[in-house]
From TrEMBL:
Signal peptide range: none
UniProt keyword terms in alphabetical order: ATP-binding, Nucleotide-binding, Repeat
InterPro entries for this protein: AAA+_ATPase, ABC_tran_Xtn, ABC_transporter-like_ATP-bd, ABCF, P-loop_NTPase
Official protein name in the record: Bis-ABC ATPase YbiT
Gene3D superfamilies: P-loop containing nucleotide triphosphate hydrolases (3.40.50.300)
Biased composition (Polar residues): 9-24
Pfam families referenced in this protein's UniProt entry, alphabetically: ABC_tran (PF00005), ABC_tran_Xtn (PF12848)
MF terms in GO: ATP binding; ATP hydrolysis activity
Claim: Cell wall biogenesis/degradation is one of the keywords in the record: no
Lineage start: unclassified sequences, metagenomes, ecological metagenomes
Region of interest (Disordered), residue spans: 1-24
Residue span(s) of domain ABC transporter: 113-363, 418-636
């Protein structure tokens, strides 16, 4: 690796008296040889710089000026880049650099959360081992990996909710951690707005103690003094605007105003999780841990959440299977695989490119080394008995010993093979809906008219509770509409994936027997076993009973059912729920290649954008029908 030297000289012509601080720093490329920094002819740094953990060190404007300065770390990996950076000494907060309160602390990573040799082991094989990683101040990390690799376990360790088998977690004692809690029934006796305010524990404690004093009819002089102290603390923590701020967050996550002062016990399951999302946002911590924050959110609310998170200055560690969300919010990816965590700077798409290139480079290097070893071995074998060539043969043998192949660890990631086919092709019109209506306490939809042409891929979107799943149930006949008709093509065969499919797996049947019931007359044992194998179920797995498998495994079983049914129309209600990235991407590809007609509900914008040829949005006042893709829908919406 060649050494590159660069320096940045501040332009003080417009402000000759400016107080600029010069600080030396050392940088390197990463161990994959990715470019971290380039320099122009005049020595100005032109690209963002990252440390070995993937933390952003500085951000560079197009004209070469440093617009963000983060933290600096000397890195003992390959090629070194040295640069001189300058920073105003009078600055107390560098505008635009998230979360950096003291930009003069330039030497050493300003890390707020770090692990040292973390190992977690439940059975014989550890989930992850000797993980040492630092999460830099102000960055937003997407924690990604296959289902079952230990993402949620790692998150619980970071948040102090679970002790690792070995190693420790450290942070600045003055830094506050906010966590998206998963126990949605823990606050049943509290009001919704109080549940949100409880996210800021220090504020809640002050409020509770103050309210207790005021509720005492025999308040003493000493109590009065203490109440005054508490009022000062309450004001300092913006307590007097707490209910207003909590209400704004509740509105953002879609909780109606009339529920804000009601009890949590009156909020429907699923919606309680939205309250807990508002709770962690209200806490405004230094470090935010978010495990699947987009679960149970509709597309519009996810967009709102992206905007809120992008405005925050705190460090975030986020688990999500929403590719669009990761691309929009995260500055880095923390990839949990091979029993370790690797950091990559950039979005999810950039991570995919970098990780693929690194893997290909590793395999290519090993292939070249194997060819070299084979060539050397052939020489040794041919000339080792030849007196005139024996020295050369001995030298070649030593060379073989020096060539080391890079270790290629088995990945926890596996992609199922999904392919949907149709037995009989339809022509022209697949579905006609006329005057369809359904109501429970209130009307969900009335006088709905719909014509579906063969081959269309229709995404049904809209806010939660507007009736998307109800419409799907009415279309497949699982629910009787109050008015109107649903007329399918005479030769239609329908495959249905219900959002709530727990009832499909209640019987104590083996995976093989469950799948076998959906096979066609000519589908023998080999076809059933082959289908299960393509969906990543091993020989041992197929004897398990379906009532004990995970949500992601249930999803794959249902895809197997559809593969065996070979319908010419499929209705899928939130099919990406509980799936890992590999399964989502395999499903995405399978549906792109599906020759039949598709109607689906999804809150995954990447999924919708890549598949839909038509968008139907359900709203409280009717439907919006866009004959075009998701981007055209967004343009029409303005």
């Amino acid at each position: 690796m060649k050494e590159i030297r660069a320096s940045y000289t501040p332009d003080t012509s417009s402000n000759p008296g400016s107080d600029m601080l010069s600080t030396q720093a050392s940088y390197t490329t990463d161990d994959f040889g990715h470019r971290l920094t380039d320099t122009t002819g005049n020595g100005k740094v032109t690209h963002d710089t990252y440390d070995q953990y993937g933390n952003t060190l500085c951000k560079i404007s197009p004209n070469g000026h440093i617009v963000d300065l983060f933290s600096i770390q000397t890195m003992p990996i390959c090629g070194i880049i040295r640069a001189s950076f300058y920073l105003s000494q009078s600055a107390t907060r560098w505008r635009g650099s998230p979360g950096i309160a003291n930009p003069h602390a330039l030497i050493g990573i300003n890390t707020v959360l770090a692990t040292a040799n973390i190992t977690m082991q439940f059975g014989a094989k550890p989930l992850f081992e000797d993980v040492s990683i630092k999460f830099g101040d102000g960055n937003r990390y997407g924690l990604i990996g296959a289902n079952g690799c230990g993402k949620s376990t790692f998150m619980k360790i970071l948040g102090g909710d679970l002790e690792p088998s070995a190693g420790n977690v450290s942070k600045d004692p003055n830094q506050r951690i906010g966590k998206l809690r998963q126990n949605q029934f823990a606050y049943e006796e509290f009001s919704v707005v109080d549940t949100v305010i409880m996210g800021y524990e220090e504020l809640w404690k002050v409020k509770a103690e103050r309210d207790t004093i005021y509720a005492n009819p025999e308040m003493t002089e000493e109590d009065g003094i203490r109440a005054g102290e508490l009022e000062a603390e309450f004001a300092e923590m913006d307590g007097y605007t707490a209910e207003t701020r909590a209400g704004e967050l509740l509105a953002g996550v879609g909780i109606p105003v009339e529920q804000h002062y009601g009890l949590m016990s009156e909020v429907a399951p699923g919606w309680k999780l939205r309250v807990l999302l508002a709770q962690v946002l209200f806490s405004d911590p230094d470090i935010m841990l978010l495990d699947e924050p987009t679960n149970n959110l509709d597309i519009n609310t996810i967009g709102w959440l992206e905007g809120v998170l992008n405005e925050r200055n705190c460090t975030m560690i986020i688990i999500s299977h929403d590719r669009h969300f990761l691309n929009s919010v995260c500055t880095h990816m923390a990839d949990l695989d091979y029993g370790e965590v690797r950091l990559y700077p950039g979005s999810y798409d950039e991570y995919m490119m970098a990780a693929t290139q690194a893997s290909e480079r590793l395999l290519s290097d090993n292939t070249k080394k194997k060819a070299q070893i084979a060539e050397l071995k052939a020489f040794v074998s041919r000339f080792s008995a030849n007196a005139s060539k024996s020295k050369q043969a001995t030298s070649r043998a030593r060379q073989i010993d020096k060539i080391k192949l890079a270790e290629v660890k088995p990945s926890s990631r596996q992609s199922p093979f999904i392919r949907f086919e149709q037995d009989r092709k339809l022509h022209r019109q697949a579905l006609e809906v006329e005057g369809l209506g359904k109501h429970f306490d209130e009307p969900l939809f009335t006088d709905l008219k719909l014509m579906v042409e063969v081959g269309e891929r229709i995404a049904i979107i809209g806010p939660n509770g507007v009736g998307k799943s109800t419409l799907m149930k009415c279309l497949v006949g699982d629910l009787q509409p109050d008015a109107g008709t649903v007329k399918w093509s005479e030769n239609a065969t329908i495959g249905y994936y219900a959002q709530d499919h727990a009832a499909d797996f209640e019987k104590k049947m083996s995976l093989y027997d469950w799948m076998d019931q959906w096979g066609k007359e000519n589908d023998d044992e080999q076809v059933i076993r082959g289908t299960l194998g393509r969906l990543l179920f091993s020989q041992d797995d197929i004897n398990k009973t379906v009532n004990v498998i995970s949500g992601g495994e249930q999803g794959r079983m249902l895809f197997g059912k559809l593969m065996l049914q070979r319908p010419n129309i499929m209705l899928l209600d939130e099919p990406t729920n509980h799936l890992d990235m590999e399964s989502i991407e395999s499903l995405n590809l399978a549906l792109e290649n599906y020759p039949g007609t598709l109607i689906f509900v999804s809150h995954d914008r990447e999924f919708v954008s890549s598949l839909a040829t038509r968008i139907i949005e359900l709203t409280p006042t009717g439907i919006i029908d866009i004959h075009g893709g998701y981007e055209e829908y967004l343009r029409n919406r303005g």
